[in-house]
Amino acid sequence: MTIDAIISLFIFVVVYYLIISEKVHRSISVVLGAFILTFFGVFEDPDYLFKNYVDFDTIFLLIGMMLLVSAVKSTGFFEYVAFKLIHFSKNSFLSIFILLNFFVAFFSAFVDNVTTIMIFIPITLAVADAAGIDPTFFVLSEVFSSNIGGTATLIGDPPNILIGNAARLTFNDFILNTSPATLITWGTIILYFVLKNKNI
Questions:
Q1: Which of 62, 67, 80, 11 is nearest to 41 (CA)?
Q2: Closest Cα partner for 110 from 65, 72, 70, 142?
Q3: CA distance 196 to 147
Q4: Which is more confidently placed, 49 or 197?
Q5: Rounded distance, CA 111 to CA 141, Å?
Q6: At what angle do helices 171-196 and 93-108 cross, to 10 degrees?
């Protein structure tokens, strides 16, 4: 193992620890790690670093998505949709379960998964508390739905954007290739959860 590889591995572990422990903001941790790697000459040519290691299309798309989600979230749109779903279900736990999971998957296909979960979980907990049932079942299913939904589109997850750029796939190309598998997987997971839970 070369000295550059050892330095890279050490910096990776330290940065990962700082992100997990949240002792330092993750953005600062990542930038600091990149600076140290550059300082020690792991990236010998700065031009090579920016041309081959940084995907600016992905970075700017993610920044735009974060700004859009932040703006939409401040309007209360997601909460409005969630409460409308509960009203539409007409007190049927099965309908609530399927609709919540469907829209968690749907929103995750276009916005950040974590944001979607952070919005829907409090509503799910309120519903479970009012119904007097264990919310674990709902929460777990929504986590699965969020991750599965995020694979459906080019902008659903950061890795999707990287893959799409590398393979030069358009938004429609990505949907045509991933959506069928996503729908089958999501349907299978929901069916499994419904069959495993007797309270629905």
A1: 11
A2: 65
A3: 20
A4: 197
A5: 18
A6: 150
Token digits for 101?
Answer: 């999971």
d(CA 4, CA 23): 26
Q: What is the pTM of this model?
A: 0.69
| pLDDT tens column, 58-100 | 777 777 777 777 777 778 777 777 777 777 777 778 888 888 8
Cα–Cα distance measured from residue 170 to residue 32, given in angstroms and rounded to the nearest whole number: 34
> Residue 65's closest CA among 145, 160, 148?
160
Burial of 151 (0-12, 13-18, 19+ CB in 10 A): buried
Q: d(Cα 200, Cα 198) in Å, to the nearest integer?
A: 6
Contact 177, 167 (CB under 8 A): no
Q: Which residues contact 12 (CB under 8 A, 6 or more apart)?
A: 33
**CA dist., res. 197 & res. 101, Å (int):** 15
- The one-character DSSP state at 8 is H
**Tokens at residue 47, please?**
């031009």
For residue 9, the SS3 value is helix
In 39-196 the beta strands, taken as DSSP E runs, fall at none
For 21-50, the DSSP string reads: HTSS-HHHHHHHHHHHHHHTTSS--HHHHH
User: What's the N-to-C CA distance of the chain in angstroms?
Assistant: 56
